[in-house]
C-alpha cells in the first residue's frame, strides 16, 4: 500500500488493498467451509473454529466498512433486521430506550410488538426535537437512544452530535441507523455515536442481490461484547457468498452514491413547485425543515432518497405509481434501479406515513429519463 494516508474512495475501491497471498488474486476469495480443523492438542492455533462465529470471507467486508466508518470493529448479519434487533437484545428487560416516531417500519413493528413483550420499555419520540428528547430521557433507566438519519420515509434529519451529548449525559448509548446516508455522506461515530447500523441490503451492496446488515462500533466495550454474543448464539450471521457480494458492492459505493445524490438533488429541485406535487421531502432542498442540520452533518450530498406528496391525495398517488414505466414498483432502496413505493399501503394500518406520499429511490439511470417518466405519470 501507499506510504501516505489513503482516501476512503481508494480504500473502498481496493477493499483495503488486500491481495491473496497464495495466488496473487486481487479479488478476495470465498471460503465456504463451515468448520475448521483442530490442532493435535484440540486447540485452534489458526484462530478459526466455526463459521457461525467466524469465516475468513467476512473479514474483507467487515474490515472495509470499519475503515470507512472510522470504527473499532464491524459485525456482519444476515439482514438489517438481524443487526438492529441484536442491539436491543443485548439490553436487559426493563431497560428504557428511545426510538424515532417515524422510522424503518419493520423495526418499529418489532420493537412495539415483540421487544416490549419481554420487558423492554420502548418510547417513540420526535428525535428532531431536542427538548422532547431531553424530557423523555430517564437517568438510570434509559440505556439506549436509537436514531435514524435521514429517517425513512420522510427523510427527517437528526443532529447526531447533539443527540450523542444528551445520551451520554445520562450514561446511555447512541446507535445511529445510517443506511440512507452511508459512510460516504455521514460519519456518525465521528459525531459521537457509539454504534452505527446499516441495512447493507441497500446502498452498501447496491445491486439488489444480497440481504445483509452490519454494526460498527466505536469501542470494543462490554456492551459490544454482549451484541457479539447475541449474534453468535442466535446465529443471525451472513453467509460467505453473501459477504463476498457485499464486499464487491462496496468497491463501487462512492461512485454510485455520488451519482445518486446528484440525480436525486436535480429531481427534487425540478419537482418542487410542480402543480401536481404538494410537497417534496428531500434534505438537499433549502425549504426542507432539516436542511441546515443536513448541510452541516452530511458530506458532499444529501442522499439518493426523496419522497413526494401527490396533490390529489392517496388515490392519485397510487395512480401515479401505476403509470410509471422507468421507475419500478418495488420494496427496498439503494440499488442501481430506481424504485417507487406507496409506503402507507405497504406499512398497513397504524402507519404514520401520509397517505399521499410516494417514496422514490433514485438509481443510476439518466436523470432526464427519470424526470420525464415522473412528469408523464403525474399528468
Structure write-up:
The longest helix is centred in the C-terminal third of the chain and has 19 residues. By secondary structure, this protein is α/β, with parallel strands linked by helices. Helices cover 36% and strands 15% of the residues. Helix 2 runs parallel beside helix 9 and helix 12 packs across helix 14. The model has no long low-confidence stretch (mean pLDDT 94). The protein has two domains: 243 residues, Type I PLP-dependent aspartate aminotransferase-like (Major domain) (Aspartate Aminotransferase, domain 2); 126 residues, Aspartate Aminotransferase, domain 1 (Alpha-Beta Complex), CATH 3.90.1150.10. It is globular and about 75 Å long. The protein has a seven-stranded mixed sheet with strand order 1-7-6-5-4-2-3, sandwiched between helices. It has a five-stranded mixed sheet with strand order 8-9-12-11-10.
> Which range best describes the helical content: under 10%, 10-25%, 25-40%, 40-55%, 55-70% or over 70%?
25-40%
Largest sheet, strands/sense/barrel = 7 strands, mixed
CATH C-level category of the largest domain: Alpha Beta
Radius of gyration: 21 Å
**Order of strands across the biggest sheet?**
1-7-6-5-4-2-3
CATH topology of the largest domain: Aspartate Aminotransferase, domain 2
Mean pLDDT: 94
Number of strands: 12
- Outline the low-pLDDT stretches: none
- The second-level CATH architecture of the largest domain is 3-Layer(aba) Sandwich
CATH homologous superfamily identity of the largest domain: Type I PLP-dependent aspartate aminotransferase-like (Major domain)
What is the N-to-C succession of helices and strands?
HHEHEHEHEHEHEEHHHEHEHEEHEH
Distance between the termini: 54 Å
Sheet-strand content, in percent, reads 15-25%
Shape: globular
- Supply the number of structural domains: 2
Count of DSSP helices? 14
Structural class: alpha/beta
